[in-house]
Design goal:
240 residues, alpha+beta, Ribosomal Protein S5, domain 2, 5-stranded mixed β-sheet, 4-stranded antiparallel β-sheet, 4 helices
Length: 240
């Protein structure tokens, strides 16, 4: 049956309300907060600093290391198991791979850049919010970046391709048609993907539609990221 209306009344290409800020953790080298709807991600960057133990060092380049952590009771009344589980480690690696294409760490051999991502509140799209916050935090730390990275979860709910799925939409499955959740991340200048994952099944045509939608939404998110960075250096704040 057709998907009649989104639970929160949004159009298919609309995101939930977004708030973005940088420079929010004074002792970090760079930091950011990215909130999309009820999902909130904080990212803090430390480094570059000498990587220990020495056998992990790379004499040709620095190493990016991302740690992803959903805090207990962060979403839907279910307590998240504390500590770094397999899912957290997988998302940390995915985040590193999504961010590395815009970074050049060759100036920092034998060093590590640590990015810590914490989510105190979640309602789907957590890895995308974390990647988006981490990119802002790296820019805030002053790393040279050839492009920005923004991420969003697109997907198909019944017969509709939608942007920024919520938890309720991810659970909106019918016997006839399920839900396809497709987290993507883009570099806006080149238009290239740095993240593409999928949970569920989707046709080739609907996947093309989802990727096109994700690219357009990420361009809008990048504008919000850049506005937040400009606002810090202008001495103000920027919320949308």
């Amino acid at each position: 049956m057709p998907y009649p209306k989104r639970f929160d009344g949004r159009k298919s290409d609309e995101t939930r309300p977004i708030v973005a800020k940088v420079g929010i953790i004074p002792r970090a080298d760079g930091s950011a907060m990215f909130q999309i709807g009820k999902t909130t991600a904080y990212a803090a960057v430390y480094g570059p600093r000498t990587l220990h133990p020495k056998w992990m060092q790379n004499p040709n380049t620095g190493v990016l290391r991302c740690e992803y952590n959903m805090l207990p009771f962060s979403g839907h009344g279910e307590r998240v198991r504390p500590g770094g589980g397999r899912r957290a480690r997988e998302i940390g690696m995915v985040t590193e791979n999504a961010l590395l294409p815009v970074l050049d760490l060759r100036e920092y051999p034998n060093s590590v850049v640590d990015v810590y991502i914490d989510l105190p509140q979640t309602d789907a799209g957590t890895r995308c919010a974390g990647i988006t916050a981490a990119a802002m935090a790296l820019a805030d730390a002053g790393f040279e970046m050839k492009d920005m990275v923004a991420a969003v979860a697109v997907g198909k709910v019944q017969d509709h391709v939608l942007a920024d799925l919520t938890y309720d939409e991810e659970q909106n499955k019918t016997p006839e048609e399920g839900v396809a959740d497709i987290p993507v991340a883009f570099m806006p200048l080149s238009g290239k993907l740095t993240l593409l994952q999928m949970d569920g099944e989707v046709t080739r045509e609907d996947l093309k539609k989802a990727l096109t939608l994700g690219k357009e939404v990420c361009k809008r998110i990048v504008d919000i990221q850049k506005a937040a960075l400009r606002a810090k250096y202008a001495g103000g704040s920027d919320d949308e």
